[in-house]
Amino acid sequence: MAVNDRGAPSAPTHEVMMIQESMKVAGFYQGEVDGLAGSLTFAAVRAYKKQNHMPVNNRLTDEFIDHLREHA
Hints:
Blueprint: H1 13-25, H2 39-51, H3 62-71
Helix pairs in contact: 1-2
């Protein structure tokens, strides 16, 4: 599953909520945990990826989601 670079979500709402919550706990996201992958969510994802030496993009791959489950 992925979200394309234009921000069209194809990740399920519960996974977007998990990403938002993880980004909030890590201090990257200040928005609502609503399951909607918007500009604040993608800005947080890019900042997190940059800090963790991952390719910086808007893609919410299974690998990224698994990383969050293990490390965030």
